[in-house]
Specification:
Blueprint lengths: L28 H20 L4 H6 L3 H4 L4 H4 L5 H17 L4 H27 L11 H7 L4 H4 L9 H18 L5 H21 L2 H7 L4 H15 L4 H22 L13 H19 L10 H30 L4 H36 L3
Length: about 375
């Protein structure tokens, strides 16, 4: 009798369920619009709310050019604080769930291409013989390409780049404390609480090293933005609201202390404590409204373009704006108002060119090079 081996019927492979993609944040176009508003605030300050080199461009004090508006333009410098609140929100959003290498590649590729182009353009324009402003030495210009000119004590090609030094330190703290170990709600809350306390200690200790690392003067704005992102994730998060409230209370103190000049007889334009507090409150409230979804209807596509232009506009508007103002107002004899409007428009056009021909081409390549395999 022949034995037969009974073989089990083949089991059909169980199809594997594709991994669910991680939910992606919907682009908050209102945040792009707020970025542009903050950039225009800073531009108004640089063109009509302060003295210094812009006086040479106008041929007289901007106070005489804008007798009714210069006092309001003086508050435009607080656009920087609004930027920092936005930055805290955006960095927490973009760094959540992202590995450190990807986070670094994203930040470097976002900042560097337009920054390098702005350094080269401003240096080239200032080197022209018909321009009244002096270019930096080649050595100092080269150092500026590293973004480390501020701690190295080197003169700046771009007047606004001091804010980038603050941003870089915030990125480093957030990367080490949140991105590297992995972002969680608990870890982000501890980061915000720990940084707030450490920054207060640094302020009291009056130690330069702690000031450099912990950025006490601007930390509340970054921390407030991070807290508002936690609110965006869960509007009922009491701890997140506490972070936002404490950050506003401390942030307005630093802003008033640093910018109020009502008692200074040499001040170009006086800023009141109340005015400063109101502008700081505007920054926090505007980002909070976006975080809570109150401005979701503000979803026009052109705001994405506006957000893309903000960074290159911010980089080039001050120093190149001086050149344009002088050419239009002194050279062509245009009125102050027309010169102001055309200077803003020309800087936005240059920002569009930088975004299209520099950022759109170099940013993806730099990101791929930095995030690719070793």
């Amino acid at each position: 009798m022949t034995s037969t081996t009974v073989r089990p019927a083949p089991v059909a492979p169980v199809p594997q369920q594709p991994a669910r993609p991680q939910p992606r944040e919907t682009r908050l176009r209102a945040l792009d619009g707020l970025r542009l508003i903050a950039a225009l605030m800073v531009a108004a300050y640089h063109y009509g709310g302060r003295g210094g080199e812009v006086t040479k461009a106008w041929g007289s004090s901007a106070k005489h050019q804008f007798p009714m508006l210069h006092g309001y333009f003086a508050y435009g410098c607080l656009g920087v604080q609004v930027f920092f609140v936005i930055s805290g929100f955006v960095i927490c959003m973009s760094g959540w769930g992202r590995p450190l290498k990807s986070f670094f590649a994203s930040r470097a590729s976002r900042l560097l291409p337009a920054y390098w182009a702005a350094i080269l353009i401003v240096s080239a324009v200032f080197a022209l013989p018909m321009v009244a402003y002096k270019a930096l030495s080649p050595s100092d210009t080269l150092v500026n390409l590293t973004m480390l000119q501020q701690p190295l004590g080197v003169d700046r090609v771009l007047g606004v780049c001091w804010t980038l030094w603050a941003e870089i330190r915030f990125y480093a703290l957030f990367a080490l404390c949140v991105v590297l170990p992995g972002a969680t709600r608990r870890r982000v809350i501890l980061f915000c609480a720990g940084w707030t306390l450490a920054a207060a200690i640094a302020q009291g200790a009056k130690m330069p090293l702690l000031d450099i690392v912990l950025i006490p003067e601007y930390a509340p704005f970054f921390i407030g933005g991070v807290g508002l992102y936690l609110v965006h994730r869960d509007r009922r998060d009491v701890h997140a609201w506490g972070i936002v409230a404490v950050s506003f209370l401390i942030g307005q103190h630093y802003a008033v202390r640093g910018l109020r000049n009502a008692s200074d007889p040499n001040a170009f334009a006086h800023r009141s404590s109340l005015g400063i507090v109101l502008v700081v409150a505007f920054g926090f409230i505007a980002v909070a409204a976006i975080a809570l979804g109150w401005l979701n209807r503000v979803n026009w596509r052109w705001l994405t373009v506006a957000g893309a232009l903000t960074y290159p506009f911010y980089l080039v508007h001050e120093h190149l704006g001086w050149v344009v103002i002088h050419a239009l107002h002194i050279g062509l004899g245009l009125s102050s108002a027309v010169t102001f409007a055309l200077t803003i428009a020309s800087m936005l056009l240059l920002a569009w060119l930088l975004n299209r021909y520099v950022e759109n081409r170099l940013t993806p390549r730099l990101r791929a090079a930095l995030s690719g395999p070793r």
